[in-house]
Amino acid sequence: MPAHQMSLVVASITFLVGCGERSALTAPGTMSFQAVQSASAPAPFSSGLVNPCNGEFVDVEGWIQLRFVTRTDANGGSHTVGRILEHGNGTGAVTGAAYVFSADSIITANAEAIQSGTAQIVVIRLLGQGQVPNFLGLQVLHFVVNPNGDLVGVVDDFRGECR
Q1: Which of 14, 84, 109, 136 could form a disulfide with 80 if both were Cys (CB 3.0 to 4.6 A apart)?
Q2: What is the distance between the alpha carbons of residues 125 and 101, in angstroms, rounded to a whole number?
Q3: Tens digits of per-residue pLDDT, 96-119?
Q4: What gap in Å lies between CA 160 and CA 65, rounded to an integer?
Q5: Is the pLDDT of residue 155 over 90?
Q6: Following CA atoms 22, 27, 33, 37 in sequence, which dihedral angle do they give, to the nearest 10 degrees?
Q7: What is the domain extent for residue 133?
């Protein structure tokens, strides 16, 4: 698996582990939203990535914010919906071109007694200013884990486009 996809898998697993803690059970037959943490304050980040359209390394600085809500069900299951927003500006190492980076991730995680699973959709934009190409990416990731911790189902689809 390519490094960029592996980092998204690691982020998904980290998100799942962090959201896998179950809060108190709700009364039988009821479903209630229980905010574990409704939103974190935007936090700064600094990273680098390669524009796949021209091979240029781009240093990016910006902010990242996580928003999520978790609810439990009458059977002790945990259901989390989250969104990770990232935005930053960067500079190309070769061309010196300015870039704008954004990523928007929608994550759902379900932990049940029988199995757990997560789905993640990530939209990535690396927009070059001037004559450098733009990169647009979409990743769909879904996996299911059984009670023994075995990975029993995986969908991993990544598509990119240069403009």
Answers
A1: 109
A2: 6
A3: 999 999 999 999 999 987 889 999
A4: 24
A5: yes
A6: -30
A7: 3-162
Radius of gyration of the chain (CA): 18
CB 128 within 8 A of CB 56: no
- Number of structural domains (the chain) is 1
What per-residue confidence (pLDDT) applies to 12?
A: 40
Q: Which residue in this structure is represented by tokens 């978790």? A: 70
- Residue 149's identity, in one-letter code, is G
Could you give the CA distance from residue 100 to residue 88 in angstroms, rounded to a whole number?
6
3-state secondary structure at position 123? strand
What is the Cα 44 distance to its own chain's centre?
17
Cα(69)–Cα(54) distance, integer angstroms: 39
Tokens of residue 136, six digits: 């647009």
Which of 141, 163, 135 shows the shortest CA–CA distance to 154?
A: 141
* Token pair listed for 12: 């998904």
Average per-residue pLDDT for the chain: 81
How long, in residues, is the chain?
163
Going by their DSSP bridges, the two strands 43-51 and 32-34 should be labelled as unpaired
Task: Note the pTM of the prediction, 2 decimals.
Answer: 0.72
Q: What is the dihedral of CA 53, 54, 57, 63, to 10 degrees?
A: -40
Distance, CA of 65 to CA of 108 (rounded, Å): 16
